[in-house]
Amino acid sequence: MANTKSAIKRIRRIAKQTAVNRARKSRYKNALKKMNVLIVDKKKDEALKFLPKLNSELMKIAKTGIIKKQNASRNVSRITKKISAL
Questions:
Q1: Which of 15, 34, 39, 69 could anchor a disulfide with 62, C-beta 3.0 to 4.6 Å?
Q2: Structure letter (DSSP) for residue 67
Q3: How many whole angstroms separate alpha carbon 17 and alpha carbon 33?
Q4: Which of 21, 37, 41 is nearest to 54 (CA)?
Q5: What is the rounded CA–CA span in Å between residue 64 and residue 75?
Q6: Does the CA dihedral 15-18-22-24 come out positive or negative?
Q7: C-alpha span between 16 and 50 (Å, rounded)
Q8: From its phi and psi, is residue 41 left (phi > 0), alpha (psi between -120 and 50) or beta?
Q9: DSSP state at residue 15
């Protein structure tokens, strides 16, 4: 256990930040799952409407460092390719 005042504060801060990061990551994963369901159901119009929202969500998460920017770009690229193949 931390025994200095600053270390104790740091633990509190890390706990709060972990909760925020977990919530953001959950939103991103849910958005990906929703898009994959649309693709599996072959709903091209709905998938195209949802694509900008998904892109925005991925870039927000990449900007905050929860996932890497390359990871977000790769996800968008793959999903765009799947949508255009419908």
A1: 69
A2: S
A3: 24
A4: 37
A5: 17
A6: positive
A7: 30
A8: alpha
A9: H
Q: Which stretches does DSSP call E strand in the chain?
A: none
Instruction: Give, for all 86 residues of the chain, the pLDDT tens digit.
Output: 778 999 999 999 999 999 999 999 999 999 999 999 999 999 888 999 999 999 999 999 999 999 999 999 999 999 999 999 88
Q: Can you read off the two tokens belonging to residue 59? A: 């870039």
Amino acid at 55: N
Helix (H, G, I), strand (E, B) or coil at 3: coil
pTM of the model: 0.77
Cα 4 to Cα 79: distance, rounded to the nearest angstrom? 48
Contact 51, 80 (CB under 8 A): yes
